[in-house]
Amino acid sequence: SYQRFASCYRCFYKLQPELTRSIYDQFISQLQTSIKEEIQEVKNEGNLEALFNYLDKIVEEAKDQEEPAWRPSGIPMEDIRSAMVPYLLKHRSYLHRVLRDKEEENRKLAQAVLAGRDKILELQELIQARQCAWQ
Fold first, then answer.
1. For the whole model, what pTM was predicted?
2. How far apart are CA 57 and CA 64, in angstroms?
3. Count of CB atoms situated within 10 Å of the CB of 9
4. Which DSSP string do the residues of 32-90 spell out, in sequence order?
5. Is 70 left (phi over 0), alpha (psi -120 to 50) or beta?
């Protein structure tokens, strides 16, 4: 405040109060300009404007959610478990589905192999029958 500034420079204020006020106004003006420049420089260096826009987007998306956001409990093992269990259950479900698909594919391939063996046996019998007929 101007009162603090004047009390710091009391001797100068007593001699020329108008000049003290002018110096104070210039000091405040330059300080504000300097602060604004520093803030702009920090924003530019850290790409803060894009990050703030992204944060605003996240906040807007979160308004539509009905369930509360996840918060850590403070117990790392429980936090990890609460985060990992749903993922692992989903992955296990996926692996079961893949296993069923592969077992079905193997069953079909086994039937094809058996059908091929039956066809080979039939052809061998046909070959033997023709061989016997030829002899």
1. 0.41
2. 12
3. 13
4. HHHHHHHHHHHHHHTTHHHHHHHHHHHHHHHHT--SPPP---S-HHHHHHHHHHHHHHH
5. beta
pLDDT tens track for 91-134: 999 999 999 999 999 999 999 999 999 999 999 999 999 999 98
Instruction: At 30, list the tokens.
Output: 């330059």
Single-letter amino acid code for the residue at 118:
D
Q: Tell me how far the alpha carbon of residue 108 is from its chain's centroid.
A: 41
What is the tens place of the pLDDT at every residue in 17-55? 888 888 888 988 999 999 999 988 887 887 878 888 898
